[in-house]
Amino acid sequence: MTDPDSAILDAAVRIFVRYGMRRATMADIAEEAGLSRQTLYDRFGGKDGIVVASIRHLGDVTCDRVQAGWTEAPGLAARLDIYFRIAVLEVFDMLQASPDADDVLAGQGPAAQQAARDAERRKRAMIADMLRETVPDLPPDVPNRDEIAGFVTSAAAQAKYSMTDRADLTIFLATLKAATLALTRTAL
Question: In what helix (H) or strand (E) does residue 188 lie, and over which residues does it extend?
Fold first, then answer.
């Protein structure tokens, strides 16, 4: 993705959060991005195209930020904290700020839903790779790293999208972290 695309998609995400996906218009996004509507249509083909690109962009930015945070994190516990803060709590806060969070969750069609699934798959692979690095000697009697990564990302995503209270989500994530550490037999 080019830098101009990144700025456009950042603007689109701000508009979707501000107005909701249904009420946001290409004119709103164009104004926020400092472009003409025609430029947006030429680049993304329409609102569905910019929705899909925005979901992909948000997933990429989230994963990039998590991985950047992990460079300074010493182990599994610290890395889970970073993942939960960036990929779960910050997205939860963004959804709570949106007047139409439900339409964000429902997606805008099959392509948008596929983009969201792709982002979750990338997070799962990222967690599995991180587990390979931080837990090199996984006990033989526990699920493998890919299965643990699926457990962590699926549980966190479900909680992020279904809970309505940040304090409850924070408690849930602390429990998920403790369960993951216990499962991998990793000390705090």
Answer: none
